[in-house]
User: Fold this.
Amino acid sequence: MAEPAMQLIGLKKQIGSKLIVKGLDFDIQPGEVFGFLGPNGAGKTTTIRMMVGLIRISEGDVRIQGKSIKSDFKGAIRHVGAIVENPELYGFMSGYKNLLVFSRMIPGITRDRIDEVVKLVGLEKSISQKVKRYSLGMRQRLGIAQALLHRPSILILDEPTNGLDPSGIREIRHYIRKLAEEENVAVIVSSHLLSEMELMCDRIGILKNGELISIQEVHSTDKDVPEEMVKIDCSAAQLENAKQLLQEKFGIAAVDNNNQLLFPISRDQMPPIIKALAVADIEMYAVAVERKTLEDKFLHVIGENVIE
Amino acid sequence: MSSNFFQLVRNEQTKLYSQLATWIMLGILVVVVLGFALITRTADNFTTDYDEATWKQELQDQNESLAEIDQADTQILINNYRIENDLMPDGMTAWDFLYDSNMLTSVLSLLTIIVAGGIIANEYRWGTIKLLLIRPATRTKIFFAKYTSVLLFALTALIVLFIFSWLFGMLLFGLGGDGSVLQVKDGKVVEVSVWTRIAQDYGLQLVKLVVWATFAFMISAALRNGALAIGTAIFLMFAGSSIVLFIYDKPFAKYVLFSNLDLTQFTTGMKLVEDLTLTFAVVTIIVYYLIFLVIGWVLFTKRDVAGN
Ligand SMILES: Nc1ncnc2c1ncn2[C@@H]1O[C@H](COP(=O)(O)OP(=O)(O)O)[C@@H](O)[C@H]1O
Ligand SMILES: [Mg+2]
Assistant:
């Protein structure tokens, strides 16, 4: 396996007496889109601020291309492009001037590169306009442009879809996939919305109260894990009976969620199960076999709905 | 390394002069100079023009009336020197006006404090600090690039003050003479060249300017609050000499910055605190200055850049 683009090693942040990030350990690979999912206040932004050296690391370390952000800030940060929280740029300058100013901070960025990045994010028409007249979507795009100027191998975007309309979200998703697939950039995206992450990420880590609860592959390549999810709507009184039956006869550990039984299974295994339930006089109102969403996966792994 | 620093300073200047407020401030400075020139022109006692035939008599008369008030008035020596050496006074010239404009350095100080107080705090207010500090440039370099930019602004404004004072002076009073003046030194009349006089008149004022601008810069860097930085610096600059009136007889008075800051007290001999010497004052000012810079630098480089 290639050297990870970024490594988090026992990363902790304490502010005052409060432990906000409680020891994160994971690697992010080149060309991977990693989603950082968690409710508001989970510690996503705090973690990202530590990744880019804006706040001090209380314990542990972040290594970027093998270089520690703590002891070799310049060596590490040159591989990173980021937007932390909102894409805030200089409103009194044009988009182009903003990019020019940031380009001067890193040697070797030519005017051609600026033009290239402007084109990539599709801001050619409005690049000479003052940024204070930009819409949020345009600002988000300019934010991405400044993050990409120096061809970073890691792109960090904190809630990039916040406040964007569906077409804006689609666009961001498109850039992110393109960068990861065509330029082998490792992208870290944070969000509090699972549905968005699912469409753009390769892996998703769930953060809750400063702890990483689970990391899931979005498109599982593992053939043994069924890709379908069954939902059985049955009478509340018989829920426990049904659960027991499934466990005893088929070895299935179903989860109950709002009077529905949920379990992963592949479609062709269903007829005998339905038959067995019917024979046992379980009253079923609906049986649905759905493609498993990420939410179902997480639900199954964690056993409760952790996402807000 | 140094070219990198140069680029950072250049960026700060780009940002400064992209703001309308900066141009308004320089515009105000020009308007103030013009107003001062017009007031000086209309106050006619300043602008007596001497007549080729009668000027010696006029100076004699002036001496007699001066002597009635104060026998030791140095103007009497200067007038006698003119009569003996046949040097007719020019009346008010552009050069004289340029010297008098040194009073306007308090306006210059005000503007510089506004720039110094905002230059770091604004980046926090705009949120752009998060983009500025995640580049391969150390915080120390960014701190000193910003400080250099403040001093460059003061220098620019000083040049604007010079040019417009001279220009309006020329239009309203005419050029006349080479700008040298007669001064009494140790009981003898000596001729002082234009540049010596400018250095004298402006130099002492600029010490104050630099100290208070540095103070505002420190607050801006340490507390990230521009209004507070500008407010306290302006207050202390104007209230400073009044504060001395309350403490001048206390034992600690000579260690207080305000007691030392007005260096003109050593040229006029009217010391604010009795046992002050020029050397002591200069050393004290330098110590305060360095303390301001170090506090600002330490807090800017060490403090977390966390949410507001
Ligand atoms: N500077 C700070 N001082 C104290 N607490 C903070 C500070 N910054 C963040 N927090 C707390 O840390 C937690 C995580 O915040 P944050 O990282 O912004 O979460 P997220 O980005 O996941 O919404 C929150 O409970 C927040 O109140
Ligand atoms: Mg956040």
